[in-house]
């Protein structure tokens, strides 16, 4: 019975990695119909409505932590979503995985927790992969690649900051996710108002299919499934399965969006995925960082 539950949890985690990997390509499709602020506002308000029951009986102290957490997530998502307008979905999926290798470096800068020597080797491996993925040298980095790299850095620091905020209040992970969704959605609306407001909502069914996928599957369902599965699997298996996210993203972009992926790009992306898996599964400090990310509700 225990082995069956473990196998079930691992299949569920693989499903989450698949859904999150495809989210970059789906978001790119949504951006063909609506601007960045609008896509974020509609996606996260819809997700917030789905999670509305989790907000019952939440005390003000929890909101004081949840709203800043939403602000951090909004900054990360703005970088990610803008980046998708200027880079490929496959590049985005691989570059964001750098956050797993950069998290221990962020812990070092913020808290003085020096990473193990092997982390430096993994950082070098990731950078080599990034160079192969985006071109023969850093000069080939597009503006979108640079924005996605900034998003990875923000995610690495965000994991540390979000953990601190989450530790100061008693709300459940689901309630924190709901607060983050509302903060992102309303924050995106406020930012759009400062730029003259949003155009009318698109009527194209493709837009609403993409937004529903992002809000319901990539946010609400993926987080609930992940919470269930994380309690029934061990960190190394979690790292291996979640490390497959960028590979799924590249496969989706190649098969569905028709993005070109030559041998060097596959090699570079593969090196980054390997570095992410080794970083999250190979040392206690880094496993702790990944666990922190999952518990406080950073959504893909």
TrEMBL record:
Highest taxon in the source lineage: Bacteria
Entry annotated with the keyword RNA-binding: no
A UniProt-annotated Pfam family: EamA
GO cellular component, one term: plasma membrane
Keywords per UniProt: Cell membrane, Membrane, Transmembrane, Transmembrane helix
Bilayer-spanning residue ranges: 37-55, 67-86, 92-110, 117-134, 206-226, 238-257, 263-283
InterPro entries linked to this entry: Diverse_Substrate_Transporter, EamA_dom, EmrE-like
Membrane topology: Multi-pass membrane protein
Limits of the EamA domain: 9-134, 144-279
Subcellular location: Cell membrane
PANTHER family named among the record's database cross-references: EAMA DOMAIN-CONTAINING PROTEIN, OS03G0707200 PROTEIN-RELATED
Listed name of the protein: Threonine/homoserine efflux transporter RhtA
Naturally occurring in which organism (per UniProt): Rivihabitans pingtungensis
């Amino acid at each position: 019975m225990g082995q069956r539950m473990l196998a079930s949890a691992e299949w569920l985690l693989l499903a989450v990695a698949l859904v999150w990997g495809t989210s970059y390509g789906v978001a790119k499709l949504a951006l063909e119909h609506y601007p960045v602020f609008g896509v974020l506002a509609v996606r996260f308000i819809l997700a917030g409505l789905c999670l509305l029951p989790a907000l019952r009986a939440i005390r003000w102290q929890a909101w004081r932590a949840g709203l800043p957490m939403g602000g951090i997530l909004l900054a990360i998502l703005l970088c990610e979503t803008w980046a998708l307008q200027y880079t490929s979905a496959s590049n985005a999926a691989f570059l964001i995985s750098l956050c797993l290798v950069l998290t221990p470096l962020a812990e070092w800068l913020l808290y003085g927790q020096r990473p193990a020597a092997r982390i430096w080797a993994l950082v070098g491996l990731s950078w080599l992969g990034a160079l192969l993925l985006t071109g023969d040298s850093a000069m080939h980095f597009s503006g979108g690649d640079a924005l996605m790299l900034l998003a990875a850095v923000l995610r690495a620091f965000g994991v540390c900051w979000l953990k601190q905020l989450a530790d100061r209040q008693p709300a459940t992970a689901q309630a924190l996710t709901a607060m983050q969704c509302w903060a992102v959605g309303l924050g995106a609306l406020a930012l759009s108002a400062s730029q003259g407001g949003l155009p009318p909502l698109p009527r194209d069914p493709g837009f609403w299919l993409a937004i529903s996928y992002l809000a319901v599957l990539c946010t609400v369902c993926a987080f609930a499934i992940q919470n269930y599965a994380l309690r029934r699997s061990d960190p190394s298996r979690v790292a291996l399965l979640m490390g497959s996210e960028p590979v799924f993203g590249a496969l989706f972009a190649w098969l569905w969006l028709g993005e070109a992926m030559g041998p060097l790009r596959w090699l570079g992306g593969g090196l980054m995925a390997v570095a992410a898996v080794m970083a999250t599964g190979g040392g206690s400090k880094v496993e702790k960082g990944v666990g922190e990310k999952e518990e406080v509700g950073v959504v893909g």
